[in-house]
Amino acid sequence: MKNGLKMSTGKLNFYYAEAQALHEISLDFYANQVTALIGPSGCGKSTLLRCLNRMNDLIPYSRAQGQVMLDGEDIYDPDIDVVTLRSRIGMVFQKPNPFPKSIFENVAYGLRVKGIKDRAFLEERVETSIKRAALWDEVKNRLHESALGLSGGQQQRLCIARAMAVEPEVLLMDEPASALDPIATQKIEELINELKNRYTIIIVTHNMQQAARISDVTAFFYLGRLIEVDETEKIFTRPGLKQTSDYITGRFG
Cα(first)–Cα(last) distance of the chain, in Å? Predict the structure, then answer.
């Protein structure tokens, strides 16, 4: 059974200058579900992810056409405040990117940007976010040490805590475990499974087994087009299209 519709794209096209990277993408994302975007390199997965919180706005000569809706509101409407939008839609990148600050200040960063100065509130929110990121026991005595001293897997969970601190509604994850070892990857996957109780999660992954393990819905992309989308179990066991089957079984890509 599906939860309520949280985000959707409608006939979304995206261009880098004259090169079209996405073609007519219409896709629904439901609350408290993990949607995995899969497909070979260069198929448009990460471009789509960055369209969902307007990160692509930062790229010169790029443009989007079509709709991206969040709670029934078009995020590309000229009246939308992009800073507010990005606090509602958090992003975790492929490579852990902690700031050269303390562990505490990394997590508090977005709250300070919003103008929050109340120390007790900051401490409570930082602790809650680090706990949700399954990192608290490892760092609770090191909060004022540099985040750069953490391992790669810890840094990635810290970046997830940082994204969660501003209480987003949606979490975007672009290959969040691709730079990590198997043990750290397992921790990230377990974390994603817990976090979907609170968030709508959209994840780009090259790792087919990972998509099968952690997602509820899988969308397969090829050459900037959405080829097939369905419940993950069906995509991996009974795909509707030969092209999907060929990709999943490793015949191409």
Answer: 32
The CA distance from 225 to 99, in Å, is: 35
Whole-angstrom Cα distance, residue 205 to residue 193? 15
In terms of residue numbers, what domain contains 88? 5-96+164-248
CATH of the domain at 205: 3.40.50.300
Rounded Cα gap, residues 240 and 230, in angstroms: 9
Rounded CA Rg of the chain: 18
Task: Classify residue 18: in a domain, yes or no.
Answer: yes
Please state whether the predicted TM-score (pTM) of the whole model is above 0.90.
yes
Q: In the chain, how many domains are there?
A: 1
> Is residue 112 situated within a structural domain?
no
24 closest CA partner among 220, 225, 243, 230? 225
Torsional class of 201: left (φ above 0), alpha (ψ -120 to 50), beta (otherwise): beta
Task: Specify if 41 maps to a domain.
Answer: yes
Strand, coil or helix: 15 = strand
CA distances from 152 to 50, 106, 109, 172 (A): 23, 15, 20, 19
pLDDT in tens, 152-196: 999 999 999 999 999 999 999 999 998 888 999 999 999 999 999
Instruction: Tell how strand 89-92 and strand 225-231 pair up.
Output: unpaired
- Rounded CA-CA distance 157/143 in Å is 14
